[in-house]
Amino acid sequence: MGRIRILSDNVANKIAAGEVVERPASVVKELLENSLDAGATELRIDTENAGRRLIRIQDNGHGMLRDDAMLAFERHATSKLSDVKDLLAIATLGFRGEALPSIASVSRLLLETRSADEQTGAAVEIAGGKLLRCDEIAHPVGTTIAVRDLFYNVPARKKFLRSDQTELAHIGSLVTHYSLAHFDKRFELYHEGRELLNVTPVAGISERAYQVFGSDIMDDLIDLGVRTKELRLPPPYVPPHTRPTHVQAPDAQPPEPDTAHYALRGLVSGPQVQKLNRNSIFLFVNGRLIRDKLILHSLTSAYHNLMPPGCFPFALLFLDCDPGEVDVNVHPAKTEVRFRHGSLVHDFVRDTVRELLIASRPVSSVPLMPRSPVPELTPQAAPAPWGTPRRFEFPDRPIQQGAVLPFSEFSQTLASGGADEPGSWLANPVPTGENSIDQLPEVSLSRTAFGSAPWGAAPSRSIDDKSVVAYAPSRTGRVPDTHGALSQLPAEWDHVDSYTQLPELRPLGQLHESFIVAAGRDGLWIIDQHVAHERILFEQVLRQRAAGRPEIQWLLMPLVLKLTPGQEFEYARIADELNACGFETEPFGQRTIAVKAAPAGVGAADIEKVVFEILEIAEAELRSASLDDVRRSVSATIACRAAIKINTRLESSKIEWLLAALSACEYPMSCPHGRPIALRYSTKDILKSFHRI
Ligand code: ADP
Ligand code: MG
User: Which pLDDT score is estimated for 684?
Assistant: First the structure.
């Protein structure tokens, strides 16, 4: 007798459950996706014992016909696909027909449902994959699924579950993120009667983000609006032997290239928000929460040179495209996708986000006392005076409980996907030790402290408002305005918060011969003279390099430098780039080079250091980087060495020149290494601190 047997459906379902149902949050995910696919607009989730004892999801979707209610538990039973062709363009969240039978094989499940087409509903009860009953019941249109005692028959799985707090956190973050993707729907999440999330339908993603995360983050976010792009697709490859050999008629037009439609929406933080890991980046492709190294990489590239390496933004990105452009059938839990035209998508996301960041020119403000709460919601999506990006004014609002639960499986898998995964080319690997499932950071935004860590070291932990509260004086009642009102406040004094104000600044002097202090229409500015000059020079070097005319200085005597074997190798790799940026170098005997000229502005004493620094960067960071990155790093090093140092006294004419040159920069907000250039103590904050408002 042969040895091979076909597995029973029950065994096959349990195997599938191993992939699909990893933990209570996976059950929530599958059931939520089903409800959303059924067109539900109200979703309520109740949990007990962190989802182990109970997960119940109630929706007002289209429900199921009685016959379908039974069929849904058959393996590969789905209403969402009928043909293999449908697999090429999946528009629903589910399509594998595996979730319900898998969940039912490892729990006690009760399904209650009714479709609008039938008068009575159906109840189907299954335990460990065995059908216990199927009755007619009264039920409103929609579906309620209760999953009890998850893994009661798979003790090994049960053992792998983490603490209640962690499992609940996974559920909380999952529901939160789906609620962000579907802001026009109501989501409620309860744990043993305690409300963790309760959000009503709103008009847009910014309002939903406000509902979920509270008002503190809104100041730091930029709404992308809806950015659409028609990507011209490269023609499909035709093998030479099948190409037509006849000569084309002279007037024949080349065929129109195919196009694919993409749209990008969402919110991203300005470079002043610097997270220490990727946990605050949420990516949705066609409404599906996914982890995707390609989009993550394009997002980090958008912040290149605007944020220090190793820091990450907060982002909620929704990419929508023709379903045929993306293969969602890559992973059993449907958390990964593959793009048909990956590099086009990559560049679209990077360029769109970068353009907006540059246009918004946000400025870091001096961390201050928390704002006083305002009772009513007054969304005010006023367009910024300088163009596209929108900023928001919302009253203070506490973060929803569910939202502060840490982000779960997606970011974790991403974060842990280090060197062993093919995608380890990600620019800024997450430092190890921060991914422990039990100590994931909270999903909330706060500003980074300024200047507390030596540069190059890990950025300092964010200051959150709590730490500032301690210093806030108590405010008991209004202080009578006995000292006169402040005159000459511009009408928009509390809205001006951008580097567009730079040209109007009036320099007041220098602090410690290092920081320029200036008065602006919107407050007091403090500008780091070294990084400001660095930014000016950086853009100048890049411009001159692009024009092929770097400004150079010839040395009276060539500078002869001895290289290590490693440096010699790197030199060979980047010699052209060095020369294009204004160096004149050539090999000079064994492991030695002669530098005959250097970029103007780099002091003679610094030339040797600059060359070695560039070689070092090339060796350490840029081995796998693109030529563009090499170019930027070389330019940044030159700019850094040539820039005015701190502890340098500046004539007032020089200060004026510096401010004017900075305001002419394309990106005056941060130095090439991502440090902020200016801080602003806004008039509003000054008035608040003096209790004048
Ligand atoms: P899939 O979602 O991949 O189709 P599932 O096993 O998750 O597979 O669900 C099987 C089928 O059950 C779905 O195709 C759908 O027709 C039906 N179904 C599941 N949940 C719901 C729901 N909440 N409302 C309406 N129909 C549902
Ligand atoms: Mg499903």
Answer: 83
| Nearest by Cα to 263 from 337, 326, 329 | 326
CA of 94 to the centre of ligand 2 (A): 4
Kindly state the average pLDDT of the residues 459-484.
Answer: 35
Lookup result for tokens 């990559």: 346
Residue nearest atom 13 of ligand 1, based on CA coordinates = 78
How far is it, in rounded angstroms, from Cα 109 to Cα 27? 11
Q: Specify the DSSP class assigned to residue 76.
A: T
Strands in 364-365's sheet, in edge-to-edge order, are 364-365, 678-682, 523-528, 515-520, 506-511
Task: Report every protein residue that has its C-beta within 5 angstroms of ion ligand 2.
Answer: 34, 94, 99
Ligand 1, pocket-test mutation among 19, 29, 37, 105, most atoms within 8 A of CB: 37
pTM above 0.90, yes or no: no
pLDDT at 496 over 90: no
- Assess whether the C-beta atom of 279 lies below 6 angstroms from ligand 1: no
Residue 496, burial from CB neighbour count under 10 angstroms (0-12, 13-18, 19+): buried
Closest CA to 654 of 521, 516, 552: 516
Helices (H), 231-341: 293-302
Cα(111)–Cα(495) distance, integer angstroms: 53
Cβ neighbourhood burial of 159 (10 Å; 0-12, 13-18, 19+):
exposed
Question: What does the block give as tokens for 279?
Answer: 């946990």
pLDDT digits (tens, 9 = 90+) for 527-548: 999 999 999 999 988 888 888 8
CA triple 362-368-369, angle to 5 deg: 135
Residue 238 has pLDDT above 90, yes or no: no
* Ligand 1 binding pocket mutation candidate from 78, 81, 143 (most atoms within 8 A of CB): 78
pLDDT band for position 200 (50/70/90)? Answer: very high
112 lines ligand 1 (CB under 6 A): no
Would you tell me the crossing angle of helices 529-547 and 652-663 to the nearest 10 degrees?
Answer: 50
pLDDT tens figures, 140-171: 999 999 999 999 988 888 878 888 888 998 89
Pairwise CA distance, residues 250 & 244, whole Å: 15
Q: Contact, 674 vs 308, CB < 8 A? A: yes
Element (H, E) at 105: helix 99-105
Residues 72-96: what's their mean pLDDT? 72
Residue 362 confidence class, pLDDT cut points 50, 70, 90 = low
